[in-house]
Design a protein that fits this description.
The complex is a heterodimer of chains A (274) and B (299). With 274 residues, chain A is mainly α. Chain A is 83% helix and 0% strand. Chain A has one domain (2-270). In chain B, the strands form three sheets. In chain B, strands 5-6-7-3-8-9 form a six-stranded mixed β-sheet, sandwiched between helices. A four-stranded antiparallel β-sheet of chain B has the order 11-12-10-13, covered by helices on one side. In chain B, strands 2-1-4 form a three-stranded antiparallel β-sheet, covered by helices on one side. Chain B is elongated, with a radius of gyration of 24 Å. Classes of the chains: A mainly alpha (274), B alpha/beta (299).
């Protein structure tokens, strides 16, 4: 089983490298995090001790959008593309299970994302250290940002596979992941915000809203990074929601999501008749 | 039967109330080459995918050397060449074949000889995206040869191949059969598989309408033999009065008869002596035979 998963994974890594996905993802992360690091240091007027803390806060906001986007762009083609090209039937005629194929792709794509996140965010950290704008706490926040970004990306990779398996064509898969991104990353928050405004400070705002928020992987990612780093929380002004939830809520949500999403992908893949 | 590699009994499959496969029964013994013919949409690919376990059938049973289609033992014994096979463009031929070798538990050392076997050793390290269709088809054949399958399912294996490559492909198929692999070859042209298969099965709208050797099919069909005579100037009418038939181009007469009447006709023609300048006998064409079984009107 392991050999087959690794066989699929190694081929997928080759493909990601040849398609320039590794390069593109890394460049995107690098450019954005460098821009935020330098832009983030501007308001403080000089390169102070808080340089990395501020840039981690900005990068958290960035990663909420970018990690799901990169992940979905890598994964929407994974099953629909193979099926459309006619390679999936051949692959499935070999003694490899659908679960093994999924895990192989998942490992390769998560690895690609991890590489991009580490290089991108890591460079910011390195620059901040070099300029003396980092301390142990902000480095810890950076490490947390890298790891949770990879987790967030992995959730959307698996969700991308699920949609890819559900759709009949690559074009349909692309459309579906775009809708998913919009709903989970943008509209969900707007909807919650609207509900809070309507409700005032009623039961919904007090009890339901924080839980609904943490149930969304993108928000769980935000909350985890914010709740853990006081400086980050102050910088993003999102302490309210984070305070009303137990400490474990966001980590549990973000750690459970990849597993649930992979199960969903496995289920929808099982319905595919190549 | 113990030596049956593939057993299909009463297989049926419906899609949106339409019978894609209807009560299909077919057996393949080790080393047997069987052609599976039918129009596009006759159910050939569906039948192959059912044998692979990729498509579930609604009725009947299929076993691959005793194993359930799609189970690990069945997959280990079965090789498949999809119609218009495509591989990932970014990979090289060697990488793609190595992946298949790893998935089926075959040693990597087998990959290079196989690539040479199908004439791809020079292109092996170039990306498949730069290959011609024929080269991709050869790679498809190379992966069929991995791990000595007991059953090989080839869906339109000759599509996109030039005559020389086609010849080589059939040499490979013969070699597999000699080594005991049962080979099922789907095609929509009988002339392509004619001399290269031991048995011919024809699907029409999901129903197996023929399953026999070529000779037996010809005999069963009783298709007409065409006799065309060229008459000496002015004798066409006389010939037509004696033999019947119809006039072609003014000077020729065409008759059709079934095999058992052929000699009788030839004797009559012989008696006409010099009035007949030339005689051409055309046995039923393979395409006619195929049309007969696939339910089309003969031309």
């Amino acid at each position: 089983m392991i050999t087959r998963i690794l066989a699929i994974a190694s081929v997928e890594i080759l493909i990601a490298m040849r398609n320039r996905w590794v390069l593109m993802a890394t460049l995107i992360m690098l450019l954005f995090s460098l821009a935020l690091t330098f832009a983030g240091s501007a308001p403080s007027g000089m390169l102070g001790v808080d340089m990395l803390t501020i840039s981690v806060a900005s990068m958290t906001t960035l990663s909420v959008y970018l990690a799901p986007l990169l992940a979905l762009m890598m994964s929407f083609d994974a099953i629909a593309g193979d099926a459309e090209r006619g390679g999936l039937a051949l692959l499935l005629s070999y003694p490899v299970t659908r679960g093994e194929i999924l895990l192989g792709k998942f490992i390769a794509h998560t690895g690609t994302l991890a590489f991009a996140m580490t290089i991108g965010f890591g460079t910011s950290g390195a620059i901040a250290v070099w300029m003396g704008g980092a301390d142990a706490n902000s480095l810890l926040a950076l490490l947390r940002l890298v790891l949770t970004s990879i987790l967030l990306g992995s959730v959307f990779l698996a969700l991308g596979y699920a949609l890819s398996a559900l759709s009949n064509s690559v074009a349909a898969a692309a459309g579906m992941v775009a809708v998913l991104w919009l709903v989970l990353v943008v509209l969900f928050d707007l909807g919650l915000l609207g509900a809070v405004v309507m409700d005032g400070s009623g039961i919904f705002t007090q009890k339901v809203f924080p839980w609904l928020m943490v149930a969304n992987p993108a928000d769980a990612f935000r909350l985890w990074n914010i709740a853990a780093g006081e400086g980050v929380a102050l910088a993003t002004g999102m302490t309210g929601a984070a305070d009303s939830l137990p400490q474990w809520a966001a980590p549990v949500s973000l750690l459970t999501w990849p597993i649930l999403a992979l199960l969903a992908a496995r289920f929808s893949f099982s319905k595919v008749e190549p | 039967m113990i030596d049956d590699v593939l057993t299909i009994k009463g297989a049926g499959k419906k899609r949106a109330d339409l019978d894609v496969l209807c009560n299909v029964s077919l057996n393949l013994r080790a080393g047997e080459r069987v052609a599976l013919l039918g129009h596009n949409g006759a159910g050939k690919t569906t039948l192959m995918k059912s044998i692979l376990g990729l498509t579930e059938i609604d009725d009947g049973t299929i076993t691959v050397a005793g194993a359930v289609p799609g189970s690990t033992p069945a997959r280990q014994m079965t090789a498949y060449l999809p119609e218009a096979v495509s591989f990932h463009k970014a990979l090289t031929g060697r990488e793609q074949l190595t992946l298949f070798a790893r998935l089926s538990g075959v040693e990597k050392s087998k990959v290079s000889p196989l690539l040479s076997r199908v004439g791809l050793n020079e292109a092996a390290d170039r990306r498949i995206g730069t290959w011609s269709k024929g080269m991709r088809q050869r790679l498809g054949m190379a992966q069929v040869l991995l791990g000595r399958p007991k059953l090989a399912l080839l869906d339109e294996p000759t599509s996109g191949l030039d005559p020389v490559s086609r010849h080589e492909l059939y040499a490979i198929i013969d070699e597999m059969a000699t080594n005991g692999t049962a080979v099922l070859i789907a095609s929509h042209t009988l002339s392509e598989v004619e001399a290269r298969t031991d048995r011919i099965a024809i699907l029409r709208k999901g129903v197996l309408v023929a399953n026999d050797t070529l000779e037996a099919l010809i005999a069963k069909a009783g298709l007409p033999i065409r006799l065309r005579l060229r008459a000496r100037d002015g004798d066409t009418d006389h010939i037509m009065q004696t033999l019947g038939g119809r006039r072609i181009n003014g000077v020729s007469v065409e008759l059709t008869c079934i095999n058992s009447e052929k000699m009788q006709h030839l004797r009559q023609i012989n008696e006409l002596g010099d009035m007949v300048e030339d005689l051409e006998i055309t046995p039923p064409k393979l395409e006619d035979l195929y049309r007969y079984y696939s339910g089309e009107k003969l031309q």
